Amino acid sequence: MLRVLAPIIHGMLSLVRSRSNLALEVIALRHRLAVLHKQHGQRPRLGLFDRLLWAWLHRIWPSWRTVLVIVKPETVVRWHRQGFKLYWRWKSRSRGPGRPKVDPEVRALIRRMSSANPLWGAPRIHGELLKLGIDVGQTTVASYMVKRRNPPSQTWRTFLDNHAADIAALDFFTVPTAAFDVLFVLVVIIHARRTVVHFNVTMNPTAQWTAQQVVEAFPWETAPRFLLRDRDCIYGLDFTSRVAGMGIEEVVTAPRSPWQNPFVERLIGSIRRECLDHVIVVNERHVRRVLTRYFEYYGQSRTHLSLGKDTPEHREVEPPELGEVIALPQVGGLHHRYTRRRPTSSRRAA
Predict the structure, then answer these.
(1) Within 13 Å, how many C-alpha atoms sit on residue 281's CB side?
(2) Which of 6, 50, 206, 208 has a CA-to-CA distance to 59 between 20 and 30 Å?
(3) Which value, in Å, is the radius of gyration of the alpha carbons in the chain?
(4) Residue 335 has pLDDT above 70, yes or no
């Protein structure tokens, strides 16, 4: 029975297939005549509808090349590929909100901070934005910063995490003046909050003078348990006896190993990079005034990576409800602090 029906079914399918091919051939030929008739002897120009038609014929009709005269087969294949790309681009389009956009005011503020503070990197600007109540990612801040050739300042690893509140460090660094004199600056820092508790300037440091600075840095019962220092000869017998009398245990670093006293070395590096490298020091009085302003900025305004992007003297977060963002110049305009202020009545009236 199957042997009898099989030729009949095959013939019926061939008839249906031949009719469909004939209909497709008629469509293709009529389209070709319409194009040629429309161009009046000129070179045929095919529009979007024409390309879609031939791409469709190429997809469903195997014999489409037999009636193709006005264009090359490679052209039709290229049209089909282009249509395939457009189709999948439309199908994979975004249907949801996606990542929220950054407000234009925030983007302008990031660029303004980056331009006004060329020594700041993305972590510093991000910490400043967090203090203003603006919640954006650090990578977002980096993408909107003003691009420069020099990378932002690098970070140092911290060590001696245990007993940080009982550890202090001190060190000297030199500052040349406009008259080619050399000034010696002593800084004393507490590890716990990176707080600068004392500094002083002299042209002739001695062991007695240095010991007196430690006494002024830690009055009464505020002396730490440990004091880190290097092996400079300035720390003589008078210094050692005075420190021991205050109940402080000295921790002396190895020779030529500044990395063993990283907190004060990082502080000195920040002082140079963010302040003294951009100032011509006139005299001792001038450098004391400049450093006083810098240490006020360092303790009250400058955010620190090791403190969770807080300041040594805790700085409250200012939400947007407190008003618009304004810039307060600090260290002579070399740095800025950003805070929020409500507009005054005169500005409201204007």
Answers:
(1) 24
(2) 6
(3) 38
(4) yes
